Amino acid sequence: MNVSDFHSGYVAIAGRPNVGKSTLLNHLLGQKLSITSRKPQTTRHQILGVKSEAASQVVYVDTPGIHNRRATAINRYMNRAASSVLNDVDIVLFVVQAMQWTDEDEAVLTRLQSVDAPVLLVINKIDRVSDKNTLLPYIEELSARYRFAAVTPVSALHAENIDRLEAVVAGLLPLNPPFFPEDQVTDRSVRFLAAEIIREKLIRELGQELPYTSTVEIEKFEENEDITRIFATIYVESQGQKAIIIGSRGSRLKSIGSKARADIETLIDGKVYLQLWVKVREGWSNDEQALRSLGYSTE
Ligand code: GDP
Ligand code: MG
């Protein structure tokens, strides 16, 4: 393959929380990188997912959802991260949920008005639409409001029409050499992904009981030949939350730990020892200093 014929580019996955951006990214990559849940705002950090083919490479960027809830430091950080990436990519996927349009979708659409890159409208969760005839007016209404380069209905969860979406993206990629080696799937370290996996298990286990302000920090990450030892701390905001996570005689924490360990073992294809602690750090989500110490850039 002549390098000058190679196509590659950055593709942002934008949209309000909970429309299925992380699920879509995982299916586009055919591998789990981004954590997903029914609870909005699961994705806090920007995650790159690299999909390499013989003649092309797509670098997907999963953005934290743009939203207009409480103006806490972490929400401001997430909005900034989501907004700035849109000016820095070759293509934007604007993900919405079929037959649903909220003020938060409206806010994202407004933000897209100043984007130069082509924007593809991705209508997700079409599996939930029983009468497909109702989709057409919905599509027409949205198309009238923005110069979308294409409109693609998909079901990220059931991997429906994802290949069609990939074909549309491929057709819009600029001529570029690859950005990453072809065997690299993400720019994130195993250490980072391990923390994300632990956070996902926490959210799954606790559902609405878990404040989304809880966070996971990897204290120590030792890779040995036979086993990888991971020591992680779950930070919460109160003693009450700590007790909930630990559960009766530590049963909940144990269950979170063993599920996370299993996923990390799959990820690294090796044995893992995982030690989890829960600590209280009061009011961190509204404290720029504490955010920085946890690795969130607040600039
Ligand atoms: P994000 O906040 O936009 O990243 O959304 P997630 O990917 O975390 O998904 C939010 C919820 O929607 C999860 O419960 C997903 O399982 C669900 N979901 C995502 N895609 C689909 C889909 O195509 N169909 C259905 N029925 N549910 C979906
Ligand atoms: Mg997400």
Describe it for me?
With 299 residues, the protein is an alpha/beta fold. The chain has two domains: 3-172, P-loop containing nucleotide triphosphate hydrolases (Rossmann fold); 190-293, GMP Synthetase, Chain A, domain 3 (2-Layer Sandwich). 34% of the residues lie in helices and 22% in strands. It contains nine helices and nine strands. It has helices at residues 21-29, 73-86, 103-112, 135-143, 162-172, 190-206, 239-246, 251-268, 288-293; strands at 7-14, 47-52, 56-62, 91-97, 119-124, 150-153, 215-223, 228-236, 272-280. It has a six-stranded mixed sheet, sandwiched between helices. A hairpin with a 4-residue loop joins strand 7 and strand 8. Helix 6 packs antiparallel against helix 8 (251-268). It is globular and about 55 Å long. The protein starts with 6 loop residues before the first strand and ends in a 6-residue tail after the last helix. The mean pLDDT is 83.
Bound molecules: guanosine-5'-diphosphate, magnesium ion
Radius of gyration: 20 Å
Q: Order of strands side by side in the largest beta sheet?
A: 2-3-1-4-5-6
Ranges with pLDDT <50 over ≥5 residues?
none
What structural category characterises the helix and strand content? alpha/beta
The biggest beta sheet, please? 6 strands, mixed
Distance between the termini: 41 Å
Structural domains: how many = 2
Report the strand count.
9
CATH H-level name of the largest domain... which superfamily?
Answer: P-loop containing nucleotide triphosphate hydrolases
Q: What's the overall geometry? A: globular
The percentage helix is 25-40%
Q: Name the CATH architecture of the largest domain.
A: 3-Layer(aba) Sandwich
